[in-house]
Amino acid sequence: MRKIILDTETTGLDFRTGDRVVEIGCVELVGRRLTGQRFHAYLNPGRPVADSERIHGLSDDFLADKPKFAEIVGEFVDFVRGADLVIHNAAFDVGFLDNELALLDREGIARTCGDVIDTLRMAREMRPGKKNNLDALCNEFGVDNSSRQVHGALLDAELLAEVYLAMTRGQNSLEIAFDSPATALAPGEVRQRPPLMVLRASEAELAEHGRVLAEIGKESKGKCLWAALDGAPAA
User: How far from each other are the two terminal CA atoms of the chain, in whole angstroms?
Assistant: First the structure.
């Protein structure tokens, strides 16, 4: 039931070429409710942010006195440990975080956390052929993103939490059912099921069923399996 909505900002698009994480933002969701618990850190990447500043607005000067990932890794891992992660375009963020953890000989996300839920993949299945970036999803689900002038890990995590709740609203009934206390039975009492209602097919329905089976039998050259079952109308 515990999920962490997570986002990162980085110096570029590929950790394999030396790009690093410059910001991590996480908010906690328990039982489909935001708890107010969060983790947020700006990080000194040890390299210039270069053109990525126009995306996240974080300059080299701003990040110069911020901690290195090694200084906050313990707090970060403790916050996300055991939780399912909800991330938009999860492969990107998990790749960068796994790289940061590997540089410190720490276990990766897969061994630290539970499942990783990719909201981008969810959105593409729900809205094929449409734009599915965070701004588009905020517009789709009525989430106010007016304060999002640049990408910011914590703000984007907060927005994604609202989007995720809207995208999975139909799952409420399942989770509420788990929270509902079971009705207690007295010692020796057996729960009685209500009698099953049996609806018999009408003569017209049976006739129509027989007609369809006859057509299937004709098209299959007598190989209609349903017609061979006990109780099936003769073709």
Answer: 54
The structure tokens 């990080």 sit at 43
Q: Which CATH number fits domain 2-176: 3.30.420.10, 3.30.930.10, 3.40.50.10210, 2.40.50.100?
A: 3.30.420.10
Give start and end residues of each alpha helix (H) in the chain.
Answer: 53-56, 60-63, 69-80, 90-103, 109-112, 119-126, 134-141, 153-167, 172-179, 203-219, 225-228
Sheet containing strand 84-87, edge to edge, reads 33-42, 21-30, 2-10, 84-87, 116-118
Catalytic residue among 40, 88, 151, 209: 151
Per-position pLDDT tens, the chain of length 235: 899 999 999 999 999 999 999 999 999 999 999 999 999 999 999 999 999 998 898 999 999 999 999 999 999 999 999 999 999 999 999 999 999 999 999 999 999 999 999 999 999 999 999 999 998 999 999 988 787 766 889 999 999 999 999 999 865 433 433 344 444 555 555 555 556 556 677 777 787 777 877 777 776 777 666 666 645 554 4
* Domain parsing of the chain, residue ranges: 2-176, 200-235
- Cα–Cα distance for residue pair 173/194, rounded to 1 Å: 23
pTM more than 0.90: no
Q: Is the dihedral of CA 54, 56, 61, 62 positive or negative?
A: positive
Q: Judge whether 151 counts as a catalytic residue.
A: yes
Helices (H), 104-152: 109-112, 119-126, 134-141
Residue type, 87: I
